[in-house]
Amino acid sequence: MGTPEFAVPTLEVLHDSRHHVLAVVTQPDRPKGRGRRMVASPVKEAAAACGYPVLQPARVRETRFLEKIIALNPDVFVVVAYGQILPASVLAIPRLGAINIHASLLPAYRGPAPIQWAIINGDQETGVTTMWMDEGMDTGDILLAAKVPIGPGDTAQTLHDRLAQAGVELLIDTLDHLASGLVAGTPQDPSEATYAPLLKKEDGRVDWSKEAKSLDAFVRGMNPWPGAFTFLLGKRLKIFKANYVQKGARGKPGTALPGFPGDLNVATGRGILSLKEVQLESGKRLGIEEFLRGCAVPPGTILG
Fold first, then answer.
1. What fold characterizes domain 201-294?
2. Fewer CB under 10 Å: which end of the chain, C or N?
3. What's phi and psi for 204, nearest 5 deg?
4. pLDDT one-digit tens code per residue, 146-193
5. Of 125-134, 217-226, 238-247, which range is least confident?
6. Segments of the chain assigned E as strands
7. pLDDT in tens, 81-119
8. Euclidean distance between CA atoms 111 and 66, whole angstroms
9. Which whole-number Å values give the CA distances from 202 to 114, 197, 205, 214, 294, in the listed order?
10. Quick check: helix, strand or coil at residue 114?
């Protein structure tokens, strides 16, 4: 059971493993783009390439869907970013239970956006966890976990890709251990739990009163979704890449500072954020030197 790109490597490796995939469950096709054309999920496309039957219930409680799943008589569900909450009646169907791969070291960062928040919060390490699913939000017993470092240049996309691969390897280890009867779940400690709430488009707005190092992490954690942005001369300015400079900035947070030609340095609550790759509303994504050739930003200009 899975839907986005993050779940595709898991399906592909399962396809090549000794474990037998009975069926793939994913979200229904959705309208996308200006033409609102119906588009299949990445997992559906991968399942079709592997030749698996695909089930796309609007709700997992649908009687016809449940009848099909029960008839398959599965040993286990593997759930990776599926996008629907599985009630107890569904979790009880597989003989062994349902396994979820979560992109954090549980109980840290329960919830839908663990990758982004780990970067935004400046963590140096995260990981992936396999767990037995229950009716809670990422609260089930932990099976196995693997640590993954967060580099100083990591974005949510680059970390996503590494975690997806780590999750695949961890899942195969988990299934192999289960088949051999060598792994048991370990309850999570609720007192150590943290939450990674869903990010919305408006959450990407830069708060220039924060320190530059924190804003560097913010920009990286928001890339590619929902994207960091500010406003320049009344237009939305997306920020794809920035570097922080740990030195004093003379100016109100959000003020463009004097600098070398081709630089756009902005005062923050502490230190300077140097913008490196941006996109002005209705414009192209550009490196900062090229951007400034077409859109001058004099010192003293306020971004916000």
1. Methionyl-tRNA Fmet Formyltransferase; Chain A, domain 2 (3.10.25)
2. C
3. -80, 0
4. 999 999 999 999 999 999 999 999 999 999 999 888 888 999 999 999
5. 238-247
6. 24-25, 30-32, 37-39, 54-55, 76-79, 97-102, 125-132, 142-149, 228-232, 235-245, 256-257, 264-267, 272-280, 285-287
7. 899 999 999 999 999 999 999 999 999 999 999 999 999
8. 26
9. 18, 14, 6, 18, 27
10. helix
Q: What is the spatial distance between Cα 82 and Cα 47, in angstroms, rounded to a whole number?
A: 14
For the chain, the domains span 5-192, 201-294
Is the pLDDT at 248 greater than 80? The verdict is no
Structural tokens at position 32:
């996308």
Determine the pLDDT at residue 247: 78
Please name the CATH architecture into which domain 5-192 falls: 3-Layer(aba) Sandwich (3.40)
Query: Is 30 within 8 Å of 38 (Cβ atoms)?
Result: yes
**Locus of tokens 């597989």:** 94
Please give the model's pTM, rounded to 2 decimal places: 0.91
- In the block, tokens 């959450």 appear at 203
- Burial of residue 23 (number of CB atoms within 10 Å: 0-12, 13-18, 19+): middle
Instruction: Examine the pLDDT at 210 and tell me if it is beyond 90.
Output: yes
For all residues of the chain together, what is the average pLDDT?
A: 95
121 close to 46: Cβ distance less than 8 angstroms: no
Strands 76-79 and 24-25: unpaired
